[in-house]
Amino acid sequence: MKSLPALWLLLCLCALPCGAEEVGTGDFCPVLAESVAAFDGQRAYRDLVRQCEFGPRVPGTGAHQRCAEWLVGQLRQSADSVTTQKFNVKVGGRTLRLTNIIATFNPKGKGHVLLCAHWDTRPRAERDPHSAKRGRPIMGANDGASGVAVLLEAARVLKVHPPGRKVTIVLFDGEDWGTDLSTMLLGSRYFAQHYRGERPEFAILLDMVGDKDLCIPQEAQSVHRAPEVVERVWAAAARVCSTAFVEERGPALMDDHIPLLNRGIPCIDLLAYDRRYTGQMLGGFARAGRQGGTGGGEVGEDTRLRGKDRAGPWYNGAGKDSHATGFAGDREAGAAHRGDRAPVEDHPLRLGRARGDGPGQRCGRPGGDAGGDRR
Q1: How confident is the model at residue 369 (pLDDT cuts 50, 70, 90)?
Q2: Over the stretch 88-109, which tens digit does the pLDDT of each residue have?
Q3: What are the residue ranges spanned by the domains of the chain?
Q4: Domain 3-346: which CATH number of 3.40.50.720, 3.40.50.2300, 3.20.20.150, 3.40.630.10
Q5: Cβ-contact 209, 2 below 8 angstroms
Q6: Of the residues 13, 21, 114, 152, which has the fewest C-beta atoms closer than 10 A?
């Protein structure tokens, strides 16, 4: 997935020793250049495909268990340490056995950066336009697998090019389970409630980042509650001429960054929100990362970062865009069920009324104010 190296580039700019401040559009520091070159977008795409081959990663299923074991095994090949945070949650008379997966790099490094994504998928596509499909689970190629794929490949790069800071990768479980806020974001909430370590300088959540034509607006909650992190990431994107990170206000989303923000960890949500695919199952695995768009990859021909790939943000389409307020459409980064999303205006977790993003704007997706009316 060629758009994924662009996302890794921005993580490098934010986390590696040379820092975004020292990087110009044509002058990459040696560590950064080597790290970006080491990021294999096609291998990341294969990781996305592999996750989907397990089937929908719905808690309580064999596919969910097998994928968890595979994810732990992959991270153990790269990280200094990998732990599983197992916990039970009762939802509607049923006990869910969930697992957050935590990988640590350079645990004694100065400073701390947290990178995260969710690895579970939605158990039902209740907003699909075809009633016969609404009870089916979502494949989650874009909403789930894409963010995880970026972080698995990032882990491999961090092994070869150790970061100057401590870096923690967390894969959250139970993000996309329920029908309202009380039964969603289960893994990130548990992690935040039980976190006792050094407070990260900042955190970045990746959700639905596999879109072919990747376009990431500034999520309204992130702008409102962690503006310095938004500024840092968008400044890094501008320095490398990335076209995927646009100066547009996106809707306010109740995603996995909210429990972290509530815990005092400045976290932003990178999610390519697209209202057209919210809560639906739009088939087509092959559309996931290999086809075309520039994604976030236009960061310079000489660094081979020009990217075309699909692997999108959060919302398994299953009607609950895991991104609570608008769970972006799971344009299934090429995996089997494309789009499990429904119009965000009808989503119970949507926080802000769409505004601002008219048809002439870059993403063509609705904007919103943090703290807007719940819809």
Answers
A1: very low
A2: 999 988 999 999 999 999 999 9
A3: 3-346
A4: 3.40.630.10
A5: no
A6: 21
